[in-house]
Amino acid sequence: MRFLVILLVSINLLAYEDFIKQAYYDSYTHEKRQDYGAAIRSLQVVYKRYPKAYTPNLCLGWLFYLNKNYANARSHYEAAVSIVPGSAEAKLGLILVLKAQERYDEAKRLIYDILQGDPYNYFANLYLADLLSVTAQYESSLYVIDKMLKYYPTDVAFLSWLAYVYVKQKKYDLAAGVYADIIILDPSHPDALSHLNQK
Hints:
Elements: H1 2-32, H2 36-49, H3 54-66, H4 70-83, H5 88-100, H6 104-117, H7 122-134, H8 138-149, H9 156-168, H10 172-185, H11 190-197
């Protein structure tokens, strides 16, 4: 009898694992097709069973963000952060939502929270350079960009922000030099091509 109970429990667990795997597989498949509504619906069956689980909240936060449903995206990312308070990935997702909502001060607070524990976190620094640049805090942005380019000298994302800041500061020769470097690394980079073609 005990063997039969164990066998039945094992079969149920395997079926349950298949159900979860299928839900994630379907969600990823729909996401690749940019059918975010279907991706969300696929994953919500897991969320309904495990509303306090980290991964479904994290994934739904991302999918709702892609679908431009920022209220739901924020709700799921905040849930993920509350479940795993030290999670940089959940905070980074929430930062994307706050940026999209133009809640820059809240986004910066989260970025600084990440950087306090991990000063060279790539995405936290990239998002900070972005926020500082778009809010015209150019000198502060240059400090962040310079710090990260010492570690990632050929990183196109940070080089792009450097060129952007130089353009905003009307340092066009410096910007052209950076864009020339970017073209070597990414020959189809649209901003670099546009800027250099104006010459």
